[in-house]
Amino acid sequence: MARGEAPADLVLKNARIINTFVGEIEQGNVAIYGDRIAGIGDYDEAKEIIDLQGNYLAPGLIDGHTHIESSMLHPARYAQAVVPRGTLTVVTDLHEIANVCGLKGIKFVIDWAQKLPLDMLFMAPSCVPATTLETSGAQIGTEEVKGLLTSPNVIGLGEVMNFPGVLSGDEKVLNKIIASQGSVIDGHAPGLKGKELNAYIAAGILSDHECTTLEEGKEKLERGMYLMIREGSSEKNLDALLPLVTDNTYKRCFFVVDDRSCSDLLHEGDIDWVLREAISKGLEPIRALQMATINTAEYFRLYDRGAIAPGYLANLITLTDLSQLEIDMVFYKGKQPVHLAISLSPQLL
């Protein structure tokens, strides 16, 4: 099919294709077979052809760090809120629901995620409870972390909030990090600097979303961390950190929301809103898209998404206006999720 010797399932023709690998726009047709992109070129045979008439075609957006519980929505309703806005991959740390009802709560969301027209990926909560001073409904120790890492779509260890425990050599904290070696390990280290920052990173922690100042973000980038630039409902760091995004640093930066309320999702949007805010503050639109697609995918080692290329998932969005990020159509695994055909039983509500 990629050689053009058999018809595609779907061809999106006359597209202005956002190439997130090189930061350019190319003209062409995109052939899709099943849930994958077969190729880019002059493909014109397919079971279905959609003429984009020069509209932009971009990879589906990726939210690299959020707690979906903060939306106060059932997972299905959350998907209904974010999918039309182009969010087709979400990386979530369920430590909020875990602090209330432990593994049972995590399993509830993981099970529902399999039914949704977006890829919901999970980070095993590292700090449940968050501190020894907290009274929580459950505890997640090293053995529970090991079990979660074998669960469907669990791709790493969630934000290591107990940075004092890392620095003091707390065995319970370090054992969870050791159990997660080889996976992505997210950080949470507000204000950490100097030798203490060195020690935190040396433990194997790769990123931070808690930077609030230019100086803090700069030091963490210089020490090799990935910078999650957060703009959510409660914490807003875009203004402070956006100046750090340069030709030299942008590949180590990506956008996250951390938390978005259901009200903000309705009235403003999800990661698409963060992109629009960044563009309005002067960030070039293609670079903004890179920071919510390919950069995020590469950090999480998700090498099947974040770009429009042969073999990649056909998670795509069309845009009528690039500078305003006006989303027209959404394709999840090569199909348009026009609506979510999900029936919620009363017991789940």
Automatic annotation (TrEMBL):
Keywords: Hydrolase. This is Amidohydrolase-related domain-containing protein. Coiled coil: none annotated. The keyword Hydrolase applies. It comes from marine sediment metagenome. Residues 56-335 form the Amidohydrolase-related domain. The keyword Membrane does not apply. GO terms for molecular function: adenine deaminase activity. The lineage of its organism: unclassified sequences, metagenomes, ecological metagenomes. It holds the Pfam family Amidohydro_1.
